[in-house]
């Protein structure tokens, strides 16, 4: 198993880019693709034609990622653009996320599975509110690695003091959020300085280029290090003459390695059984690991349905109906205290009510605005939710897959809020849950 993991998942890095409007995210991505020879000839020709049509002499590499017509017309990124490329050292899945405050919620989508976030800053403007917002989202989503790319160094004469001041301010802010490490790189995405090739204009910088860092940053992708979590998506009961008593539980491994013979607890019921078989693509295997999709059979005929979770009997998550979390509100309509919602956690969706919104985060100084009453679009805050049925919920700091959830409008299915259970910034620990009386489903 370890060989499969080492030569498969370990060679893949998922990363996201973020920054304010006009900081040059799309240009950086385009430069990265172009200079790493990851752009097909016909794609480059199309960009050159589009650039000439807009009166530009040189190809606008931002057009390689700004694929929507509205993005090309306005010169901004609106939706998350995913790009896949590879170098001899590693494969990459890149999410180019929007910079405008109106689309901050899209960064939650792009960075939710990222192992690294590249936050861009315009060297002329320094750290601005949207920079802080993106750093906060990266911290909340527990993105393991953060790169500060100080862009447009060519417009400040490649001055080292400018870079040093911005790097110091951002690193201090990120540390207050609980980000363990920041790698700062001075670049010019337009000119190509320190993106793929080292810059001839910044001999005072001795660190890696952006691509060098992406190729060498350590990423722990061995699922054996993670606890076993298997959300049941579908119960298979063929009831045929050949298999009259077959009962299999199909789903995708959320984390960890599950083996035949393992003793597992079925949550939220807490019943215990033993894994007797694992089927992968129609063949029996001895083990399965994230993110494989498999069918599991158990020794006992238990009442198991969609939304139940298989976990080690000795290391199962706590089952609760009271959820306290940090959230990023993504809908245009506000989230209010007392609002009835649906809570979707892995494959389980239950009725819930927003008991309380204790605070909203002020990004300038990381202070908490107490009892705001509601969260508007792109707000980050704390919520307390009571569910109608128990959930087997991990802390987000322990498991990004089984510690996250969505709040959904029950009337039309709109996604309202993305939540991270138990997550708080290093500088802001939340108070204990309030009294539950008076909430009746």
TrEMBL record:
Keywords: ATP-binding, GTP-binding, Nucleotide-binding, Nucleotidyltransferase, Transferase. CDD domains: CysN_ATPS, CysN_NodQ_II, CysN_NoDQ_III. Pfam families: GTP-eEF1A_C, GTP_EFTU. The keyword Nucleotide-binding applies. The keyword S-adenosyl-L-methionine does not apply. Its EC number is 2.7.7.4. Residues 10-224 form the Tr-type G domain. It comes from the Bacteria. InterPro entries: CysN_GTP-bd, CysN_II, CysN_NoDQ_III, G_TR_CS, GTP-eEF1A_C, P-loop_NTPase, SO4_adenylTrfase_lsu, T_Tr_GTP-bd_dom. This is sulfate adenylyltransferase. The lineage of its organism: Bacteria, Bacillati, Actinomycetota, Actinomycetes, Kitasatosporales.
